[in-house]
Amino acid sequence: MRRRFLFVVLSVVLGMSLLAAACGSSSKSEPPEETTTTTTAPPLPTWPLTGLPDAKAPTDGNHPAISVKMDNSSDARPQVGINEADIVYELLVEGITRFVLVFHSKLPSDIGPVRSARSSDPNIVGQFSRPLFAWSGGNNGVVGEIAAADRAGLLTNAGVDAATAAYYRESSRYAPHNLFLRLTELLQIKAPAGQGAPTPVFSYVKESTSTTTTSTTSSTTTSTIAGAVAPSTTVAPQSFILPAPAMTIDFQGAKVDYAWDATRGGWRRFQVDGKHPRPESATVDAAGVQVAPANVIVMFVDYGASPSDNRSPMAITVGNGPVWVFSGGKVTVGTWSRAKATDPPTLVDNIGKPILLTPGRTWVELPRKGQDVALLDQAQADALLAFKKG
Fold first, then answer.
1. Structure pTM?
2. Can you say how many angstroms the Cα of residue 351 is from the centroid of all Cα atoms in its chain?
3. pLDDT tens digits, 136-184
4. What does each C-alpha distance from 201 to 48, 213, 351 come to in angstroms?
5. Cα separations (Å) of 269 from 21, 102, 161, 215, 292?
6. Cβ partners under 8 Å of residue 130, min gap 6
7. Does the pLDDT value for residue 91 go beyond 80?
8. What pLDDT digit, counting tens, does each position of 181-223 carry?
9. Terminal CA-to-CA distance of the chain, rounded, Å?
10. Would you give the distance in Å from CA 340 to the centre of its chain?
11. Hey, which residues does 246 pair with through a beta bridge?
12. CA dihedral sign of residues 58, 64, 67, 68
């Protein structure tokens, strides 16, 4: 009887266990396993002309770019608003250089001095998605060229004659270096209805991308590059990159230098001219802050004679040529190319890889092809930085 009783009890217990399992329950429930979900925040939108991330870029930047022709004579320094431009072009005019400043992410209240246009300008500004073009005048031929560029859709004429209310004369300066501009007023007067932000013109390193790149080595620390011909070193099959503590460009009338400042994260700009010897050569704005863009692009270009004035040089920026791209304390050798005036320059290294910039402001220098550019060593860079300001 005892064996039978045990058998019955075991059978009942087994049956209850099977019933509980079949019903998906038990006398003692186990807590569910914890699961973790990883979410990645979407990347922030970026400003099209700097590559800098900003959640407000699509809304605050829903307007056209503004390109401003700015004086760079010794009497025009210090310029106002020069540090807020996303991109700056520097090109030869008659014996000196002049700037084309392009504003989009920042709109300072006042800009100047504003000066006259040149035949080079329509092809330079055409890449910025029909920007407003601010300028102070020119000879009849140049005036006609700007009007033609407006009709062709390369720019919107926003010169002093087309938007007089946005311009004013600064009483603390003397003519012709005293014409100034209010950017927000200019947008209100001349921005075409519905026109939004410009398209990007450069490609930038992503935040998560390493900037380490294989480079050639050189036993020399000072090199002179005539028209961007590489220094006398063995070129590796990878991208041709050199350390570049500093460099200098002789524009044959203005001597321009850049020295890399890792603390500032930019290339401090210096310019020696008739009124600014070396100790006073730092290019500063009216607040005393030195120009120090994240990138400097040296595009070697041909210069022809302006069709409106054969005494005025005209930069040929549609075509191709050598390029040196300075970023992060290094220089990458390559070529630039543009098929038409509405295209930005395509920048590739010596093996055809796109050259990526550091997000931030960019200055583009346009020396003549064949003109010497010298790379300077650290001691020479330190000598320049001894005169830094702001």
1. 0.85
2. 23
3. 988 899 999 999 999 999 999 999 999 999 999 999 999 999 999 999 9
4. 7, 23, 21
5. 79, 18, 33, 25, 6
6. 64, 153, 154, 155, 156, 192, 195
7. yes
8. 999 999 999 999 999 999 999 999 986 544 434 444 443 344 5
9. 104
10. 20
11. 259, 376
12. negative
Query: What's the Cα-to-Cα distance from 45 to each of 56, 58, 61, 287, rounded to whole Å?
Result: 8, 7, 11, 30
Q: 102 forms bridges with which residues in the sheet? A: 67, 87
The secondary structure of 225-283 as a DSSP string is EETTPPPSSPPPSS--EEE-SEEEEE-SS-EEEEEEETTTTEEEEEEEBTTB-GGG-B-
Give pLDDT, residue 6: 32
Whose CA is closest to 324, among 263, 220, 249, 390?
Answer: 249
For 151, the 3-state DSSP assignment is: helix
Multiple choice CATH, 57-385, 1.10.3470.10, 3.40.630.30, 3.50.90.10, 3.50.50.60: 3.50.90.10
Greatest Cα pair distance in the chain:
127
Closest CA to 135 of 390, 290, 124, 354: 124
Cα separation, 272 vs 276, whole angstroms: 5
Q: Where are the domains of the chain?
A: 57-385
- The residue assigned the tokens 């209850």 is 16
